[in-house]
């Protein structure tokens, strides 16, 4: 999970879409504390923070040499006078990864609309950001451009080349990759089928089929995992009249993003004081406590694990079914080759009650599983289906009505190659109501002012969990 931080002049003008004409002096946080932002992220289980260094209004949160529309024009004196530096220093000290969002759409810069001049300008600002602040792990950008805006061509290939040159360890996000792709909505909800595999040749920034973005492609040639962006509040920027989502709603989003092989990018906007609001912190604390309560105890840890087959010598533990109870993706169960039955039997010493299944694949070996299901042994001694799913990937979570049993069977029905399972978890979630469906996002769009058009070449068979 990563924390998105939308912060800028919009925070002080109570707006979502800046015009690029606000007086930069309105940006005047009286108590900015980037260390607080980092601590909130760490304490809530987020490993990365991504800052909107420049949003669509063009206002820069660092003293850019390329524009007068930045913090250097502001009377704000708290901290260093450079928000990006404040956050970079805090993240480094706190052991949290740093990502940066530099919006291509700039409603302030006079060069915007002049293709060569603006692309040079953008590359200059990107160079500042990627050479002044240490290691950057993600560069977040989009093809946003408002309806009726000046015609503008973005030289994405040149941008990507520069980013990879200056920060070779950084992943680049856009709705078409190249390294991380947009899931296709701003609801924080992935498709119930979600491949990290993707064909970049079938995608175009600003005009990618949203169904394809959400589901990926089992025949894709590129590894481009999906990222689910959503805001904890109705808007992306902080507004005094808005309140955050509940912890239970965030848990629902967790199941439908992280639990569907995606990264959850949750926007938590700092307020006009320069702090994350206490009501947001309270929700995040509750969200963290709920997750810990559910997932800190894997009921399967006390079970015996048998497999329909195991690769290699029976005394060789490298591929043992017991590996699925060890944390991490670098140990795993592998069935014997040339088999058609792929099953794990989980036998408990007593009857357990549970309603969550967790599966992980060792993704360094590729994403393989196409379809699977979980059975329980009922009172009549017959196997009965508990739940079923499609893709697994790095992490798959399925929530269902509570089941009581002492015997389970995890079955891989279809796989691109011999299936490999690195982790299996059985949990009890007493907080969620099975069948609850997240409301789709209907607020302002960070990826552009118009909905991306959906082509008809692909169909979705997805259904809610």
TrEMBL record:
Domain called Glycoside hydrolase family 29 N-terminal: residue spans: 25-288
Record flagged with keyword Metal-binding: no
SMART domains according to UniProt: Alpha_L_fucos
Known EC number: 3.2.1.51
UniProt entry keywords in alphabetical sequence: Glycosidase, Hydrolase, Signal
Enzyme class per UniProt: hydrolase
Regions annotated as coiled coil: none
Described function: Alpha-L-fucosidase is responsible for hydrolyzing the alpha-1,6-linked fucose joined to the reducing-end N-acetylglucosamine of the carbohydrate moieties of glycoproteins.
Family per record: Belongs to the glycosyl hydrolase 29 family.
Protein name: alpha-L-fucosidase
Biological source species: Rehmannia glutinosa (Chinese foxglove)
């Amino acid at each position: 999970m990563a924390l998105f931080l939308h912060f800028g002049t919009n925070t002080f003008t109570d707006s979502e879409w800046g015009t690029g004409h606000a007086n930069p002096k309105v940006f005047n946080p009286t108590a900015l504390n980037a260390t607080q932002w980092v601590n909130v992220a760490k304490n809530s289980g987020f490993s990365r923070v991504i800052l909107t260094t420049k949003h669509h209004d063009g206002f820069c949160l660092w003293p850019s040499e390329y524009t007068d529309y930045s913090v250097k024009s502001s009377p704000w004196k708290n901290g260093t006078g450079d928000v990006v530096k404040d956050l970079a220093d805090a993240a480094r000290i706190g052991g949290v990864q740093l990502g940066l969002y530099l919006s291509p759409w700039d409603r302030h810069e006079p060069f915007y609309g002049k293709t060569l001049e603006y692309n040079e300008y953008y590359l200059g600002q990107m160079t500042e950001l990627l050479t002044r602040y240490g290691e950057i792990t993600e560069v977040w950008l989009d093809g946003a451009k408002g309806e009726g805006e000046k015609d503008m061509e973005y030289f994405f290939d040149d941008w990507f080349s520069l980013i990879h040159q200056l920060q070779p360890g950084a992943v680049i996000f856009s709705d078409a990759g190249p390294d991380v792709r947009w899931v296709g909505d701003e609801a924080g909800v992935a498709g119930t089928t979600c491949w990290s595999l993707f064909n970049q040749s079938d995608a175009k920034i600003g005009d990618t089929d949203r169904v394809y973005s959400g589901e990926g492609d089992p025949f894709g040639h590129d590894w481009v995992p999906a990222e689910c962006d959503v805001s904890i509040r109705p808007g992306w920027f902080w507004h005094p009249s808005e309140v955050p989502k509940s912890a239970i709603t965030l848990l629902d989003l967790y199941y439908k993003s992280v639990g569907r092989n995606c990264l959850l990018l949750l926007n938590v906007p700092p307020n006009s004081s320069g702090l994350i609001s206490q009501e947001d912190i309270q929700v995040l604390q509750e969200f963290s406590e709920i997750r810990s309560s559910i997932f800190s105890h894997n009921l399967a840890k006390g079970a015996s694990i048998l497999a329909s087959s195991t690769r290699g010598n029976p005394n060789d533990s490298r591929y043992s079914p017991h590996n699925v109870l060890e944390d991490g993706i670098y140990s795993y169960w592998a069935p014997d080759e040339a088999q058609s039955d792929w099953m794990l039997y989980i036998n408990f010493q007593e009857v357990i009650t549970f309603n969550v299944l967790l599966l992980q694949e060792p993704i360094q070996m590729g994403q393989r599983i196409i379809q699977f299901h979980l059975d329980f042994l009922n009172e009549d001694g017959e196997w009965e289906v508990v739940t079923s799913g499609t893709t697994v990937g790095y992490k798959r979570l399925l929530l269902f009505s509570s089941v009581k049993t002492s015997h389970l069977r995890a079955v891989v029905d279809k796989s691109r190659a011999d299936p490999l399972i690195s982790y299996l978890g059985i949990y009890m979630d007493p907080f969620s109501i099975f069948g609850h469906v997240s409301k789709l996002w209907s607020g302002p769009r960070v990826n552009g002012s118009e909905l991306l058009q959906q082509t008809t070449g692909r169909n979705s068979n997805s259904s809610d969990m």
